[in-house]
Fold this protein.
Amino acid sequence: MSELTRKSLSEIRVLLAGKKAGALEVTEACLERIAATEPKVQALISVQAEAARETARALDAAGPDPSKPLWGVPLVVKDVLCTRDVPTTCASKILEGFRPSYDATAVARLKDAGAVLLAKANMDEFAMGSTTENSAFFATRNPWDPERVPGGSSGGSGASVAACQAFGALGTDTGGSIRLPASFCGIVGLKPTYGRVSRFGMVAFGSSLDQIGPMTRSVEDAARMLQVIAGHDAADSTSVDRPVPDYVSALAERRDLKGLTIGLPAEYWDKGLAPEVAETCAAAVKKAEELGAKTVRVNLRLSEYAIAAYYIIATAEASSNLARFDGVRYGYRDKDAASLMDMYVKSRTKGFGPEVQRRIILGTYVLSSGYYDAYYRKAAQVRRLLRQDFEAALAQCDLLAGAVCPTTAFKVGAMTSDPLQMYLMDIFTISTNLAGLPGMSLPVGLGRESGMPVGLQLTGRAFDETLLLQAAKTLEDNLPAAGFPEV
Amino acid sequence: MKISPEEVAKVATLARLDLSQATIEQYSQQLGDILGYMDKLGELDTAQVEPMYTPVDHVSVMRDDVVRKTARREDILRNAPETDGAFFIVPRIV
């Protein structure tokens, strides 16, 4: 049984399609794995075991369908994504018991592709956080070392995939929330170009920053999931009407990295990296050079302004997006409220956790009269400059490479007393969301000191996921296998 | 950058949050640090720069003004804390 759960998505897909393994058999293997690992890892908020079995039985009865590229493949979905009739909490008390009446588009597309949805994954509340410690319910542990965080905010998705509970997961990324947990958990995580994947049904945090993306154990797996979820959606007016390339076939078109130029931003390499991270990422870059890539130093001179711009924009947008949670139509309503205003205030105050409240206050402040121009408008101007910075760098190379995070996964509780220090963990990932570019984390080895996974971040031009995936796959094929955590 | 406890309390009212005095003071401190960090944006000359509020070059997406039924009342009301089957019920306003 455990042999099945260790397979990659691409491998299990073939076994299922060829009837070497049944859909129910594979689903049961995952459910067993979940039962065995959840006491230690706590990746999941809710498990839909019976519904998953029912879906799997129905698939088996109908037989493998070649038109469904994920036929029978069990997956996990971050609890920020609406799943019809299945509780969707965003890891918040304010949405405890909430059951959406529709599926997010990305979820519907996975279902249409034949996937079996096993569970809703834990996360930082409303995607606000970098460690999954801000979940209102419980903290998820890193499968590689349960004393350490899995990263966040898609920490449940990351841990679930790393622990082989499922063959892939959907995460979301607003400031690094796919890439950071992927890096900390030693798996692949891809944040697509803004507009590549529909945000319909994703509970919004930062509407100009959010994207849904795959978290998987291999690059090919990520390509297969992206293939299914990408593409225009009339229900999301920010989704871009642009053809989706064949990401999977494109992977075979590249055997080496000849002709590719990789940019190394000085601001991401010169200082601030833990030695083990610098060393492991540098070794991966050296491997890329051996495979034929040219490397060139580039500059992203405005990097030091990115966090400030991001936290103004993200919190401003969040304060607006979270205004809908008022106890009126769904979610927690305080029973003792004496008046309408009292209902709003009590429901929100009791329903939202401290980090969410802190960000709402910050966002409300920067948007308030008298401060809007100094903060929000200014940050939006800086955002344009940051994008131009990236465009200039990407004119000199095909993609950028650097560490995802200055450190590997740290101990639970290490950052929780200092919000600003926590925000600085996002330093290498947030610019990509501000610029709207695609970024992925590829596991490139274990850190020499901590023994924990190190992720290399690759950032590409807008809508150039094909190149990112090709480069990542080539590197992946030529680096030692990541291995599995002992959980 | 100092943000006074009074300012935090004012913003909390706007955000429909009721913060304890201890939390107001804690936020006053923490937000002061965070906003101080953000003041660094003042180092950049953005006088000629058009703000970029979204990374996609947007045209307003339109559709024909035709009525479409996309949801059922029961579904919309199913998560309501209080409903009479037709409306969301809230505390009296007037």
Q: What stands out?
A: Residues 21-38 of chain B form the longest helix (18 residues). Chain B has a mean pLDDT of 91.
